[in-house]
What we know:
Blueprint: H1 3-7, H2 12-36, E1 38-41, E2 54-60, E3 65-70, H3 71-97
Amino acid sequence: MTEKIKQVPASPAMDDLKQLLVRTLPVNDTRNHIAHGTLALVGAPDDAPSGSSFEMLRYHKESGELRSITFTRLVEQTHEAMRLSDDFSRFSAMCQLYPEFKTKHAS
């Protein structure tokens, strides 16, 4: 997390926000993978579920590697993105409804 976030006084709201931001990183990485990747059809067993033979491939500049993400992982990250959306909505409501939620922790 950025240094600015670390400098904000601790509160229940900041604790929750930090956890939400950590959970956002893998979803954002998946988004980048989809945005910059190439869909590939790979061999799968005949009894495999529909779509399980698809993979997204992308070149990762920082590591110089070709990275792959499976269809199953894409579905998992979609579900996580929906949970994150719900949790961000809950977080926003908590901030609006309960002023003490944003109050810094007692020392």
